[in-house]
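tool_call: predict_structure(chain=1)
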Amino acid sequence: MNVARIASVGLVGIEGHLVEIEADLSQGLPRLVITGLPDTALGQARDRLRSAVVNSAEEWPPGRITVNLSPAAVPKHGSGFDLAMAAAILLAAEALPPDALAGAVLIGELALDGRVRTVPGVLPAVVAASQAGVKWAIVPAGNAAEARLASSAIRVTGIDSLAELIGLARGTLDLDDEPAPVTGEQLDDGPDLADVVGQPEGRTAVEIAAAGGHHLAMIGPPGSGKTMLAERMPGLLPALSETESLEVTAVHSIAGVLPPGTGLIRRPPFQAPHHSATEPALVGGGSGMPRPGLLSLAHHGVLFLDEATEFKSPVLNALRQPLERGQVRLSRAGGSMSYPCKVQLVLAANPCPCASPKGDAACECTPRARRAYVSRLSGPLLDRVDLRINLFPVRPAALLGQTEELESSAVVRKRVRQARDAAAERWAPYGWATNADVPGPALRRRFKLPHEIRRGLDVAFDCGNLSARGYDRVLRVSWTICDLAGRTIPAAEDVDRAVELRVGKAA
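tool_result:
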């Protein structure tokens, strides 16, 4: 046999696609040629493959070897094709039985001594293989637990070296496939909302944001509880569904931050980057093919930007389109990638540069300095934030004299779950899950509220306090307040409360 074929999986963003790897042996000067738009890491496989094969006690085929990755027009990236290319070369050299690996996909990077190293993105790759009808996946042993999360319909074999693959193909080695682990992570309660005292407005805003999937901005002096409220928001969100868990775990797998041996991520993720984070770190990027950033790692969870006014303006403004679309598309010379980023954005900032813990009463900043400081959060970005609240310093009586028990995260989470269930039931026929998902035209036309209910909202819009986007976002928040109150349609008080949480007070 001079030509052999075997399958692997390539990734474009979070989506995987089967790649057929062909190996051809022919007469000529000894040389290994890799075609099919390989990137640098894949092109350097020439040296890795030869050393791995020789160090696995196998003979490297003489003559010219051509390896093609098909479809040839699609760029290929990363070192995850090493194992499949080595197997294809050995099959073409008749060093392995021709049908031993038929119907399998191979994923893994080879070390020079023949060891098989883990690679990122194994979970979405095996998911794609299973959806394409593949029944057997051979992956690095370190990725085996992750690969078994993909589907029970595909057999997963983990190997530690190329020598194990050769023994498996020749029938001289029998590797027991471990049973699929119990999926899911342990869900603890996390930080408790009962720890936040003296901020009833902040507690209410966080509950509304969690119930409707809304973005939130909090402005207040140091020590007013902004960070505490943001850190407790994931604990108010319901556990991820099976589909959501698979998506979130796949993104973490591609980014290479999924701990080995972990199950599906069940808790909504929480990402809180430092204000020195760059644009590629936040939204994704990097040399070659762009990688997912913290925005995508917070998919179906919370992205918390503490000290938001200290972030560079281009970094903050890069969030605008992804927040609107729920996905970020990164284009580079090497190609384009799309990653999901359906997040809840939480912004926290001080009201001025001096940031006196006593609040405005002790502020030494000029009005111009205060305006310039807050204006670092651009209008277009803030226009996409549904809830904006001002927090004030916690009074000593609230901090030291607290006697009554505040509601815990578990109690609030139950209300949030009920509100989300009510919204999901209402919007299910239209394909929406939360109030934040509902398009503005649908709220203004198909589910238009009577004028007497939205009078305060209309006045605020006529006065120029709201943009057209802000008008729609107030309507969404109104429906969330309605769901939390157990009503079937928003009342005037719900709309007025949503306006107040947006512009400061009802018109």
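agent: The longest strand covers residues 15-26. Proceeding to next step.
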